[in-house]
Here is the input.
Amino acid sequence: SIGGASTAVINLLDDDGASWSISGDATVVEGASASYAVSLSGSFQNGEAASVDLSLADVDTTSSDYADFSAAVSAAVAAYSGPGNYSLVGSTLAWTATADGQTPAPLTISLGTIDDGTVEANEVYTISLSSPGSSTGASVSLGGSTSVTTTITDNDAATVTIAATADGNETGPSPGQFTVTLSTTSATDTVIDYVVAGSASS
Here is the structure.
């Protein structure tokens, strides 16, 4: 006969982990698109999931300087062909394994910038990862690079021209007139030096 306990339960603690990271363009010319790769390391069992929050923070940009970030991530998710499946809910990106032993390919995000035709200083924003997790209990963390700072370099230039638009006359007297023209709108003050020369005197 069997006395006492006839069964025993052993819990196997998984010592494997996965980590999220991001890489991407440090600079982009205004009007072009910057590219970012969100990567998840590790090998997953079928049905295991990992998630992370994605955010874009303005350093000295505004939302009018680039395309909709959430739409760019959604487009990347829709274009992803495996292994496994990505999904996006709000700002949370999640990946789920669809077979044992899968490791996801990087998710490539293309974010367009807006060519506004204004002469301005370079502009900066940062894309960051945060709050790694798993709805299925997998061990997930942040590893490697967790943010990318991108500088939008301005592609606009302005020129200054001057023209005599009215002659002066000693009778009256009436002043001469010059018109100074800036070819393109500038986001900052434009400073111009000038010299008065010729045979006339003040």
